[in-house]
Specification:
Strand order of the largest sheet: 4-3-2-1-5-6-7
Distance between the termini: 60 Å
Radius of gyration: 21 Å
Strand content: 5-15%
Largest sheet: 7 strands, mixed
Shape: globular
Number of strands: 7
Structural class: alpha/beta
Mean pLDDT: 94
CATH topology: Rossmann fold
CATH architecture: 3-Layer(aba) Sandwich
Helix content: 40-55%
Length: 309
């Protein structure tokens, strides 16, 4: 009887620990209605035995992108502080790539995104990691949305894998993003390139997590459909539609009416489209810090629109 009683006590203890580990903690700054929906959905996943996967876009979804994308600021900062002080072939070639990117002007277009990888080619993964981390510490520290950090902490307690996708060069983002969210850097997936003899190359490994490439990245590298997907822009539409559970859209644009080239979003703003589709719309504060001077300004790259909460 004593042995049975001990087993019963252990079972109750283990069960209570499991329940405690899967207790929802409300996300401060989001409405009660949003929190209730999140809690209800997460509790519904407790009995699941298969992989529970969540996937999020990076810039603008997990941390601020105002006034500029960190990927751009990191490259132009490196050009100003390092390359312009050199007069060698490699420096001149890299500066020529940046001139081409500036002339292109479309910093969400495929050629521009690929040129970020070409610009960094020849550096070691550690050097690229340092460029991204230094930029983050200098210009983006404190830009991660506290609401998203709280929500992702909830997901981890409910046994979810958390993946972050970015169209920016993978090594540029992995260190600071994984550090902020307490993830292994393998869960931060960006534009990949072949690494040979310890150095990165300009040979890009497809798919790039951009537009429909984000959906293909889920199929190619994560290898299962996610229960939760979060994004913020038109470019996240295909990825969000990979979710067979919850769709979360952060600070969606409600000004620009999308055109025929945007497929099912034609005739809608990003916000009105996702409202129609039943996604959860959430707000996070994303405004420029007037105390931070951005190198990107001098290169005349377009600014992202602020989203004051």
């Amino acid at each position: 009887m004593k042995k049975i009683a001990i087993i019963c006590l252990l079972s109750v203890f283990c069960l209570s620990q499991e329940v405690q580990a899967q207790t929802f903690r409300p996300v401060k700054g989001w409405s009660q209605e949003i929190n209730d929906k999140l809690e209800s959905f997460l509790n519904s996943t407790i009995p699941m035995k298969e992989r529970k996967v969540s996937v999020f876009d990076c810039d603008g979804t997990t941390f601020g992108q105002v006034p500029y994308y960190l990927a751009d600021e990191a490259l132009y900062q490196y050009a100003d502080e390092v390359l312009k002080k050199r007069d060698d072939k490699e420096a001149r070639e890299k500066l020529a790539i940046l001139d081409r990117m500036v002339k292109d002007g479309n910093n969400v277009g495929k050629p521009y995104v690929e040129d970020r990888v070409h610009f960094l080619a020849g550096l070691t993964p550690e050097e690229i990691e340092t460029i991204g981390y230094d930029c983050y510490r200098k210009s983006y520290k404190g830009k991660f949305y506290p609401e998203m950090k709280e929500f992702i902490a909830n997901l981890k307690e409910y046994g979810f894998e958390v993946w972050i996708l970015t169209a920016s060069p993978e090594q540029l983002y992995q260190k600071f993003v994984s550090e902020e969210f307490g993830l292994s850097n393998i869960y931060v997936v960006g534009a990949k390139c072949v690494i040979a003899n310890g150095r990165t190359t300009g040979e890009i490994i497809l798919p790039i997590p951009q537009d429909d490439g984000k959906a293909h990245t889920i199929e190619t590298f994560i290898k299962t459909r996610p229960l939760i997907v979060g994004g913020n822009s038109r470019g996240d539409m295909d990825m969000l539609n990979e979710s067979f559970g919850l769709k979360i859209v952060v600070n969606p644009d409600d000004v620009t009416i999308r055109g025929p080239e945007d497929g099912p979003m034609n005739g809608y703003t990003v916000k009105s489209y996702w409202e129609k589709e039943g996604a959860l719309i959430v707000k996070c504060n994303d405004v420029a810090n007037p105390k931070v001077k951005f190198h990107t300004t001098d290169w005349k790259i377009r600014q992202n629109k602020p989203n004051p909460k």
